[in-house]
Amino acid sequence: MKICVVGATGWIGGSVMREALSQGIEVTAVSHNPQRLAQLEGVDTAVADVLDTDRLAEVIGGYDAVVCAVTDRSTDDRSIIPNAARSVLAACEQAGVDRLVFCGGGGSLEVRPGVRAVDEPDFPPQYLAEALAQAEALAVFRSADTSVEWTYASPPPHHLEPGEKRGSYHARVGDTPVVDAEGDSRLTSGDYAVAIVYALTEHVSVRGRFTAAYMDE
Questions:
Q1: CA-to-CA distance for 124 and 32, rounded, in angstroms?
Q2: pTM, 2 dp
């Protein structure tokens, strides 16, 4: 299997790239930053801005699948996230790539029926704009008339933490977070990457959303 990881120089994209490589998947790392790509070893690279649809389509053509893990916290323009969703979906259509996993947000998961985590008054204000933008990205996918088999991968609503994979996570298709006995929802970036690669290769939640977290500590 040959995949492109768009945003491979970021912490989530990098985790996905390393997990895919460990499973024997052929990976090309894609980023708009050639300097950061040059620091990667043992992987093919390509320079492309996720918002440049034509260039992205040129890069991903001939691959089996794409994982998109992009955000930009260096700017206040959170529209980058839903626009990235539109662009990568259009690029896949243009290039004839049938499979796409978008690394999304967890703030739009429902903590109670009809109530998203991002709508709660105690949702961390520093993450609010990004969470709302990720919710908009999900809406982009859900409203798209496309033949691309997309999947939106949500981490826990609050606690996606840097760390190695533990292998004990639980995954769930739909809009409800996975929680432990204390009602908490946590996951390391390593296990998030494992869940994403599994969803990619096993066609989990095609044209839908899944999430993952630990149930037992």
A1: 29
A2: 0.94
